[in-house]
From TrEMBL:
This is Protein serine threonine kinase. PROSITE patterns: PROTEIN_KINASE_ATP (PS00107), PROTEIN_KINASE_DOM (PS50011), PROTEIN_KINASE_ST (PS00108). Keywords: ATP-binding, Kinase, Nucleotide-binding, Serine/threonine-protein kinase, Transferase. SUPFAM superfamilies: Protein kinase-like (PK-like). ATP binds at residue 56. InterPro entries: Kinase-like_dom_sf, Prot_kinase_dom, Protein_kinase_ATP_BS, Ser/Thr_kinase_AS. It comes from Chrysochromulina tobinii. The keyword Nucleotide-binding applies. One of its GO terms (molecular function) is ATP binding. Residues 27-312 form the Protein kinase domain. Gene3D superfamilies: Transferase(Phosphotransferase) domain 1. The lineage of its organism: Eukaryota, Haptista, Haptophyta, Prymnesiophyceae, Prymnesiales. Belongs to the protein kinase superfamily.
Amino acid sequence: MPATADQLTATLKKLSNASAADISTLYAVKDVIGEGRFSKVYAAVDERNGQVLALKELDMGALEEDEEALEMLEAEVFALRRAGNAPHVVRLHEVVCSSDAMWLAMERVPGRELFMVVEQRGALESGFVRHLMQQLLTALTALAELGVVHRDVKPENMMVSNEETERPHLTLIDFGYAALLGEAANGGDGPVMLEGVAGSPEYAAPEVLSWLEVEVDETGEVEGEPYDAGCDVWSVGVTTHVLLCAELPFDLPEEATEEALVAAARNVDLSFRRPQWKGEAMQPAREFVRACMTVARQERPSALQLLEHPWFAGNVPKTDGVNAQYIEMIDEAIEAEVKAA
C-alpha cells in the first residue's frame, strides 16, 4: 500500500541530520542560484566550518499536495544518503528541518553542465569524452554496488570542471528519478527489479520505455519489462554518441509520440554515418557505444564490465568498486535512522 503524504513527510523528517528554529543559525544564505517547481537553491556558507555549499529549500506545503513529487524527493534523499562518498557523485551533506521548511545541504559542484559544453563547442574530442565516460562509469559502478539506480543519466545531469585541461572532472548530479534496489530499499526488502517510466525519454533504455505502451492483461496486471541498473548503461551510450557528434543516435520528430520513442530505441541504427565517427582510431568508441546500447537488457554489459572496454585501455586507473564494509556501514546507519518510519 503506497505511503500517504503525511507518512512520506514524517520519513523525510526522520532522515534529517539537524534541526533549527532558523536556518540562518547554521548557514549564511546567499544568492539564489537555481529554482525548481518545489524548491529554490541558494549559495550558502556553513557557519560551523566555512564550507561553501548549495542549499536547497523545499516547499513542503506544495510538495504535500503532490504525493508523486514527495515520493521522488524521498527516493532522492535515500539515494544520496546511500551514495555517501561514492566517486564522481554529488554529495548530500545533511538534511535540515527548520520551523517552516526542509533544507538539503548539497555539495556546490564547480564547473558547468556537460550539455552546455556540447552546445558551445559542438562535437567533442574523443580523448576528452573517453576520460569523462570512464569517470561516469566509475560513478555508476559504485552506485550499482550500493543498489542505487540513477534513471536519468544525460549530459544535463553531469557537471564538468577543468574542462580546458587533459583531465576534466565529471560529477553526476540530480537524483530526482533515482530508485533503490534489493537490500538498499525498504529496510533490506526492496524490489530486485524496477518498473515504470522514469527520466528523459531520449536517453531512456528500451525496457524503461516499454512502460509507455503497457496494457492491462485479463488478470488486471500491467505488463512492462522490469529493469535494473542496466538502464543507466544504455544512457551512457546515448550520452557518448551525443558528446562525440553533437546529435542523438536516432532521428526523432520534435513532438515524438510514445510509439515513436519506443520504436526508435528498439530499432536504433548504429551505423555511425557522421564524419566524426570515421577512421580506425574511432573503432573502439563505436564498439563502446554499440555495447552500451545493446537492446536486449540481459545481454548488455554492466558499468563495471565496460570499464574493461578497449576504449579505456591505458587511460586512467580502473575502479575497484565499493568496499563491502562501506556498504554495510551505510546500511546500518540508514536503518537506524528510519527503523521507526
